[in-house]
Known about the structure:
Layout: E1 6-9, H1 13-25, E2 37-40, H2 46-57, E3 65-68, H3 71-74
Parallel strand pairs: 1-3, 2-3
Amino acid sequence: MAIPKTLVFHDCKQDTANAATYLDERLPQNIRNHGIVKHYHSDMSAEYLQKAFEDFSSDDGRCRILHATAGCAVG
C-alpha cells in the first residue's frame, strides 16, 4: 500500500520533530528511518530544508509525510 503525500502543519518547531519521530516509529520496522517521514522548521540548515522540500515535492521522492511549521508554506 502506497503512503499518500501528506503535509502536516504545526504551531511550534518542537511539535514537528516530536510528531515526525512518533509517526516514523509506528511504521513497519523495515521502512523506519528511511526518510519517509521528515520534519521541517527554521532551526534546520538551508541545505537540509531544500533537500527535504525537494524530496517531498518530487513525484519520485522518498518523503511521503512532511511535518512542518508555517515557514514551509512561505518558503
